[in-house]
Specification:
24% strand, Rossmann fold, single chain, alpha/beta, binds S-adenosylmethionine, seven-stranded mixed beta sheet, 6 helices, 182 residues
């Protein structure tokens, strides 16, 4: 479930390069990518519908001395993002967003994150290669992977044509797509 370490390393480096101060993370699980971000930057709004897994990893986050940087919101991601949008002060307030949950809604997250992340900021999506299945002929793909494969292909096409961002799809881990907000 956790983001792969090679992808995590690049994400932390990107955050440093743009001097990110305020970030959103969708999909926390036990907090691997969250910890990397918290060690790199100052404030994180972290959203996950499951608090138990966050609490499982919390002792490690506390040991690293970065818990105070995290505002954990237990919620469905879409409703938490909608809440953030209701406050005009949040528009363009974030430098960086990392999305690693609920692949079928990536396109909806993109529409909201484009309003929350400032021009010059970065949005990263995890699992955009979906175990390589996006490039496989459908007959070779396991049944259980097909629905998310379909959404991932649609999302990758959508991003390739989205002129509000410049993208780079990087084959690290399960594939991450880096979107630079234009
Ligand atoms: C792949 S894991 C995240 C891994 C994490 N980035 C890491 O590096 O450890 C996906 C997480 O997304 C959460 N999730 C799935 N669907 C969600 C949704 N619709 N809204 C909020 N969280 C969701 C799950 O509870 C799970 O903890």
């Amino acid at each position: 479930m956790s983001t792969s370490p090679d992808a995590g390393q690049l994400i932390a480096l990107l955050q440093k390069l743009i001097n990110a101060k305020n970030t959103i993370e969708i999909g926390v699980f036990t907090g691997y990518s969250l910890l990397l971000t918290a060690l790199t930057i100052s404030r994180i709004t972290a959203i996950d519908m499951n608090k138990d897994t966050y609490e499982m990893g919390l002792p490690v986050i506390k040991k690293a001395g970065v818990e105070h940087k995290i505002n954990f919101i237990q919620s469905q991601a879409l409703s938490a993002l909608d809440e953030l949008l209701k406050d005009d002060a949040n528009r363009g307030r974030f430098d960086f967003a990392f999305v690693d949950a609920d692949k079928v809604n990536y396109q909806k997250y993109q529409e909201i994150l484009l309003q929350l992340v400032k021009v010059g900021g970065i949005i990263v999506y995890d699992n955009t290669l979906w175990l390589g299945t996006v490039a496989m002929p459908e007959e070779f793909v396991k049944e259980e992977l097909k629905p998310t494969r379909f959404y991932s292909i649609e999302f990758n096409k959508f991003l390739a044509n989205d002129d509000r961002v410049q993208i780079s799809q990087v084959p690290l881990g399960d594939g991450i797509t880096i979107c630079w907000r234009l």
